[in-house]
Specification:
Elements lengths: L1 H14 L4 H22 L6 E7 L15 E3 L11 E3 L6 E4 L2 E12 L5 E6 L1 E3 L9 E8 L6 E9 L2 H4 L6 E6 L7 E8 L7 E8 L11 E8 L2 E6 L2 E7 L15 E9 L15 E13 L2
Parallel strand pairs: 3-6
Antiparallel strand pairs: 1-17, 2-7, 4-5, 5-6, 5-17, 7-16, 8-13, 8-17, 9-10, 9-16, 10-11, 11-12, 13-14, 14-15
Helix pairs in contact: 1-2
The structure holds calcium ion.
Length: 295
């Protein structure tokens, strides 16, 4: 902000007697100044170097960057009896005011086989476009709210297509069920010889009844060989290490993972929306940034 005010004063002073060409040059210079401020805000956490990001700063109404994101499309229930049909329409995922906006809508929507759904939403992923083993993965997100909402920022092993779930591994950086307005869940899921999955999971609750849907928060995991640390903003709330992994399970967190952002509606965990649920609901994502640890 300081840079911008300085820039505006310089602009006013310099405007007197300048021709349009000079004015445009000056605007470009102010732009550079302001970008400098943005770059400073984007400074990597200590010990890390930024390797991939999407700031979602494209034109209002535009689709997410196709070089970075692809979609899961359909209404299979996604293994959890979810109620939504995921589309790649701008009505369900678009850029608005510097954010990716994923919108869960209540509407009648027919899939290609004619099956009808009561809700639509979107599920974006970097599968086939970007994946990484280890590092810091973070997103600044303002959550939707309400019974039946199930927003998530998470990752699956890149080998999902060949070995399937849960052998590929799952890292959940942000998961929230809309009836728990102030609670974020961070989890690791893997295969098990004795149960359906092997898991470690933890929660962090905002103080004083605050809601995750009231404001943006930074959800992050710092992942390295044999360990993953989970953060909400600057609060470290869980450290999961390979030696803690449940008996019968396998630590499957030593290969590349890709990113997923979605808002599910309904399903086994959150339960269905009810009369209290307000539609549409939006998840706003200001940015997703991935860092590598400096060694
Ligand atoms: Ca942004």
């Amino acid at each position: 902000m300081r840079l911008r005010i300085q820039g505006m004063r310089n602009l006013e002073l310099a405007l007197e007697g300048l021709k349009a060409r000079h004015y445009i040059c000056l605007l470009a210079a102010v732009g550079l100044l302001w970008q400098g401020g943005e770059a400073q805000k984007r400074k990597a956490p200590e010990g890390y170097t930024l390797v991939w990001s999407d700031e979602f700063n494209g034109k209002n109404g535009s689709l997410p960057d196709a070089s970075k994101w692809t979609y899961d499309i359909g209404g299979s229930g996604w293994g959890n009896h979810e109620l939504e049909y995921y589309t790649n329409r701008p009505e369900n995922a678009r850029i608005e005011d510097g954010n990716l906006v994923i919108t869960a809508r209540q509407e009648t929507y027919a899939g290609p086989d004619g099956a009808k759904f009561d809700y639509t939403s979107a599920r974006l992923k970097t599968q086939g476009l970007f994946s990484q083993a280890y590092g810091r993965f973070e997103a600044r997100i303002k959550l939707p709210a309400g019974q039946g909402m199930w927003p998530a920022f998470w990752m699956l092993g890149e080998n999902f297509g060949s070995v399937g779930w849960p052998k590929c591994g799952e890292i959940d950086i942000m998961e929230n069920v809309g009836k728990e307005l102030g609670i974020n869940h961070g989890s690791l899921h893997g295969p098990s010889s004795t149960n359906a999955t092997s898991d470690l999971t933890a929660t962090i609750t905002l103080p004083a009844g605050q809601k995750l849907s009231d404001d943006f928060h930074v959800y992050a995991v710092e992942w390295e060989p044999g360990a993953a640390r989970f953060y909400l903003d600057s609060n470290l709330y869980a450290t999961f290490a390979a030696p803690q992994w449940p008996a019968g399970g396998t630590w499957v967190f030593d290969h590349r993972f890709f990113l997923i952002l979605n808002v599910a509606v309904g399903g086994d965990w959150p339960g269905s929306p009810d009369a209290t649920t307000v539609f549409p609901q939006t998840m706003l994502v200001d940015y997703v940034r991935v860092y590598k640890r400096n060694n």
